[in-house]
Design goal:
Layout: H1 2-11, H2 15-80, H3 84-105, H4 122-148, H5 151-216, H6 219-236, H7 254-294, H8 305-322, E1 326-333, H9 336-343, H10 345-360, E2 368-373, E3 376-382, H11 386-397, E4 412-419, H12 426-442, E5 448-450, H13 461-487, H14 494-508, H15 513-525, H16 535-538, H17 546-552, H18 555-565, H19 571-576, H20 598-612, H21 624-634, H22 641-652, H23 655-662, H24 671-675, H25 707-721, H26 738-746, H27 752-772, H28 782-786
Parallel strand pairs: 4-5
Antiparallel strand pairs: 1-3, 1-4, 2-3
Length: about 775
């Protein structure tokens, strides 16, 4: 592959061929210089080794000469002091001299501490052999003379012989070895100089070749590259319309192709940059819009909770730097839920916008109002104390535009705190304003309260959170009831009217005010379980089938499960039993008499009265007169006689007629419309002619449905509410449990005479009570009950 690439570069005219030839020439020169350099290094290494060995031999010769000198000195010592020590020393030094001579002559037989030197030339080796032999002979002669006679003469003879026959020849040989070492050093220097010259020559030749190749390449190529470089710098500097001159791209070579590609790249970059800038501008605009939407409430146009907290944080930081003050107010609209319930969410939204206008129109230019969520608002008052902020809230309360057909005015409860008077941190400031707002609620609403730890409610935050959670659950349940009422145009406002009727009866029965409010809530939520009943059953215009009737009878259980999960006791239990009959023949449990909760008995009568006095899909309204007749007929069997008596008394006083007129309900129906109703459209309530002893109640199906059909209907309905699989522990077509049968058997069976006597006693008791404390009954305020 490499060969084909080089061949292609050489065969194709253009810059590639020139550069390829240049690279090959440089590689050739470098290839020649490499072996020459290696040879020079080898010669230098050889000369260095030879010089090293010559130096070692020179050191060994010096050792030999020094040893001969030591021998002569030892001999002179022996002549002065003849003892074993001087003799041993002389013998030892003589042996060392002989070892040194042998190491010089035979390097491979050297012993420590001497090191092997160079191989001596033949003549020098012979001379050293002669010196060694003479030294050996002198040693033998000396030893014989010492043992035979005159020791001093032997010592003097030894000294003279060593100086004449050993030391002088050794000095001559040492000079020759030294001369040879100097020659070896000179050889090293010569080899180094030769190698250096060769390397420098090769480098100079490479430079000359490179310069020659640079001179051979046309100058036009350099101009084209320089032009391309300048254009690249302009393009990198942001001049997106930069283009290389086309005349430089006309040559059929790589540079021409590069210039053409550069122009294409510049055009693409300009186009992409313009598109990117356009996209960035659009993204910036969209980001600003999203940021605006993220911090602004779409319904009221005010800033939202996030913006409120950020602005409050910045304002607190400013106050800490400057030593200023800032007040905040938290506003909660009173009974706003009832506005949605009574007039619908569209009117509720309109009320929120009117409240927003009332707030904004009465603020200072630098005050900030935000919608915190639902019906809650927050206001920041820079450089204002609590009293000044409260004055603004009072002014706002007077300028909120009325709403509704009767011009009702919305009120709010407000709480005010000031930094740093009431709190020094943002969290505490906000929390205490919330506590002050809650205190305003507890003081009767429609007022504003400045935070005061001595007067603010002691309810802790956990209890307030739990209360608000229950309120949120109640709002959700109320919305479900409204959804049920909206399924059938004939039942709109049904739950609200039942709640008002039930609360009116409860108040007339002298129940305490908290219980009256609970009864109102039970009446409002009694049909919440119908959210799990199929629409076609709720709006069916003909008589229900057996399975449909079973499914409809399940809605009290559904209501109980929903409200019990929301921790709404005793309302959950009251809604569960609001179809229990006084004689024990109702559902779902079959309670009888006072075993039925009083709230359930009141809601049952209110529900029956509202149903009979309103148009339904299967019949027209019966009217108040007929409804009262049916209630009296069902007293003691279906209804609690005391509750019926109270209801009838209120009707006779015209209380319920006032409520019906407020909701646009006809008090008495058109007789022609009632007489034209088909038989199946008559109400399924006890007939006035029914035999009380027979226990006649609501019209029931002639045959009970099968257990499988009932279970299937129950499973479908429960899935509409909880998404869970619903099963019954015992099929409903099984006989009632013994306890339930006993309870039903013990239920009172009222005769007509007993009912008349009961009515007379109740009328006398009410008359006596009215004489002691006369009272004119009027419908309760739904807003007060909803609270």
């Amino acid at each position: 592959m490499a060969k084909s690439g080089i061949t292609s570069a050489i065969s194709k005219p253009g810059i590639s061929r020139k550069l390829t030839f240049a690279f090959l020439a440089v590689i050739l020169v470098m290839g020649i210089s490499v072996p020459v350099t290696l040879l020079s290094f080898q010669r230098i290494a050889k000369a260095s080794a030879q010089a090293e060995r010559a130096t070692t031999t020179q050191r060994n010769v010096a050792v030999f000469q020094r040893t001969i000198s030591d021998v002569r000195a030892s001999a002179r010592d022996l002549s002065v002091r003849d003892n074993s020590v001087t003799r041993t020393k002389l013998t030892k030094t003589l042996q060392e001299a002989l070892d040194a001579a042998r190491c010089i002559r035979l390097p491979d037989r050297c012993e420590a501490p001497l090191q092997p030197g160079e191989e001596l030339p033949a003549d020098e080796a012979a001379d050293w052999n002669q010196i060694q032999n003479k030294a050996t002979a002198i040693k033998s002669t000396f030893q014989g003379a010492m043992s035979g006679g005159d020791k001093r003469a032997a010592i003097n003879s030894l000294d003279e012989q060593l100086a004449r026959e050993v030391n002088q020849p050794a000095a001559d040989l040492a000079e020759r070895v030294t001369t040879r070492g100097v020659q070896a050093q000179d050889e090293i220097k010569a080899q180094i100089a030769s190698s250096t010259g060769l390397i420098i020559g090769t480098f100079v030749a490479s430079l000359l070749l490179a310069a020659l190749l640079a001179a051979v390449i046309p100058r036009r190529l350099m101009r084209r590259l320089e032009h391309l470089r300048v254009m690249s710098h302009r393009l990198a500097g942001g001049e997106l319309d930069t283009r290389a001159d086309e005349q430089y791209a006309k040559r059929n070579d790589e540079i021409g192709d590069l210039i053409s590609d550069f122009n294409l790249m510049a055009m693409a970059m300009q186009r992409n940059t313009l598109e990117l800038r356009t996209a960035q501008e659009q993204l910036h605009i969209a980001l600003q819009q999203e940021q605006e939407r993220a911090t602004r409430d779409p319904l009221t146009g005010l800033r939202n909770h996030r913006y409120f907290q950020d602005s409050l944080s910045a304002e607190l930081e400013r106050c800490r730097r400057t030593g200023g003050v800032v007040s905040i107010a938290l506003i909660d609209l009173d009974n706003f839920k009832s506005v949605n319930d009574r007039f619908g969410h569209s009117e509720g939204d309109a009320v929120l916008r009117r409240a927003t206008k009332g707030i904004s129109d009465n603020l200072r230019p630098y005050d900030l109002a935000c919608r915190l969520g639902g019906e809650e608002f927050g206001i920041i008052f820079p450089e204002a104390n609590a009293e000044e902020a409260k004055m603004v809230l009072d002014r706002i309360a007077q300028h909120i535009v009325p709403f509704g057909p009767n011009g009702e005015r919305l009120s709010f409860s407000g709480g005010v705190t000031t930094f740093p008077v009431h709190a020094e941190t943002q969290t505490d400031l906000y929390q205490r304003a919330d506590e002050a707002s809650y205190a305003a609620k507890m003081q009767g609403k429609a007022c504003s309260v400045i935070y005061d730890p001595n007067t603010v409610s002691s309810m802790n935050s956990e209890e307030r959170s739990r209360s608000r959670a229950r309120d949120a659950m109640l709002t959700t349940a109320t919305a479900l009831v409204a959804a049920v009422d909206q399924k059938d145009p004939y039942t709109r406002n049904h739950s609200e009217l039942v709640a008002i009727y039930a609360a009116t009866v409860a108040r007339a029965m002298r129940l305490d005010e908290p219980t009256v409010k609970l009864v109102y809530r039970a009446g409002l939520l009694h049909d919440v379980g119908k959210i799990g009943i199929a629409d076609e059953i709720l709006v069916k215009g003909s008589q229900l089938t057996h399975d449909e009737w079973v499914q409809l009878r399940m809605h009290p259980e559904f209501s109980y499960r929903i409200l019990e999960a929301a921790e709404m006791e005793p309302v959950a239990t009251w809604t569960r039993h609001h179809h229990e009959h006084f004689d024990g023949t109702g559902y779902p449990v079959g309670l009888a008499g006072e075993a039925i909760p009083l709230g359930s008995r009141i809601v049952l009568v209110a529900d029956a009265f509202e149903s009979m006095t309103s148009d339904r899909v299967y019949r027209r309204s019966l009217g108040v007169t007929q409804a009262v007749h049916e209630l009296r007929a069902g007293a003691g069997r279906q209804f609690d006689p005391q509750v019926v008596q109270t209801m009838v008394a209120l009707v006779e006083q015209g209380v319920f007629q006032q409520i019906m007129q407020q909701y646009g309900r006809a008090i008495e129906p058109d007789p022609a419309a009632v007489s034209a109703q088909p038989e199946y459209q008559q109400p399924m309530l006890p007939s006035a002619a029914a035999d009380p002893a027979a226990g006649t109640t609501e019209a029931q199906p002639q045959h009970e449905p099968s257990a499988s059909a009932r279970n299937e209907a129950e499973a479908w309905a429960m899935q509409q509410i909880t998404g869970e699989q619903w099963t019954q522990e015992q099929p409903t077509d099984q006989p009632a449990a013994p306890a339930q049968e006993a309870q039903q058997a013990a239920a009172p069976q009222w005769t007509q005479e007993q009912l008349d006597e009961y009515y007379r006693q109740q009328a006398a008791a009410q008359q006596a009570e009215a004489e002691q404390q006369p009272q004119e009954w009027a419908p309760p305020n739904p807003d007060d009950l909803a609270a």
